[in-house]
Write a structure and sequence with these properties.
Shape: globular
Distance between the termini: 73 Å
CATH class: Mainly Beta
Largest sheet: 13 strands, antiparallel
CATH topology: outer membrane lipoprotein receptor (LolB), chain A
Strand content: 35-45%
CATH superfamily: Lipoprotein localisation LolA/LolB/LppX
Length: about 260
């Protein structure tokens, strides 16, 4: 027995160290995805606060619905209730794992549905600091990954990773993401533009656990470092397993939304 112990002791550290930063990053992404699987569907209410460079604010009230799609990206519907200039506007997204997302915007003033072009997902969503590609479900296949280090952020232990978009029309070259080790949720994301410069930072706060498993934030804030504008999303009234189906997320739903 003893003559085998030395080789085993030599091999064990080697096997642990042999995991590359890319492999570790992918493993963390897969683990986080599995931890957030099985919620079926969800609805919530949201207040969106837009701030210009002078600090002037515009507030919007939005209702959100989401449908989990196993084997592909999720579906989501957002309905604007106020103010009057955007009331009745509805946004529908069908996220995909391995191809461009399908996205549509219903504009009540024109009474028509506008399709968002696949090469225009980096544009601002409804004048906010969130791009169209920021508000879709973040499927594992949409990125390649690299683990950078472990550290603390706001009293939480986190993995720091780089995400590289596989989508050729992405407005980003990479994202640096701080992932809570325990909750497996992003606490902070730095977005780098197509020139590799820091463009925006997203922070998430007030995570709470629902139905004993799924963590969701109470607040998200996106700050644009170039324009000095920001957008805050305040979330409330999360409700899971409402019985939604595909019929609640087809294009006809946009015109029926109230």
């Amino acid at each position: 027995m003893r003559k085998w112990m030395l080789p085993l002791l030599i091999l064990l550290p080697f096997n642990v160290i042999a995991e590359t930063p890319e492999e570790k990053g992918m493993a963390i992404a897969i683990k986080a995805d599995k931890a957030n699987t099985g919620w079926q569907d969800m609805q919530s209410e949201m207040t969106m606060i837009l701030r210009n460079r002078r600090g002037d604010e515009t507030t919007r009230q939005i209702r959100n619905r989401q449908l989990e799609v196993i084997g592909d990206g999720d579906k989501a519907l957002s309905i604007f209730d106020s103010p009057n200039d955007v009331k009745g506007t509805a946004f529908l997204s069908h996220t995909h794992s391995n191809e461009a997302d399908d996205q549509w915007l219903y504009l009540p003033a024109l009474k028509r549905v506008k399709r968002i072009a696949s090469n225009n997902k980096s544009g601002p969503f409804m004048g906010s600091e969130f791009a169209y590609e920021d508000i879709t479900s973040q499927e594992v296949e949409k990125y390649t990954y690299k683990w950078l280090r472990d550290e603390s952020l706001g009293g939480r232990e986190v993995h720091v990773m780089e995400h590289y978009p596989t989508y050729k029309h992405s407005g980003y070259t990479k994202q640096v993401v701080w992932v809570d080790k325990e909750r497996l949720q992003a606490l902070k994301i730095d977005f780098y533009d197509r020139k590799g410069k820091l463009l925006k930072t997203l922070t998430a706060h007030g995570y709470q656990q629902y139905i004993g498993k799924y963590w969701r934030p109470a607040k998200m804030e996106m700050v644009n470092h170039v324009t000095n504008k920001s957008t805050t999303l305040n979330w409330n009234n999360y409700k899971f397993k409402n019985g939604f189906g595909d019929r609640n997320f087809d294009k006809n739903t946009l015109k029926r939304s109230r």
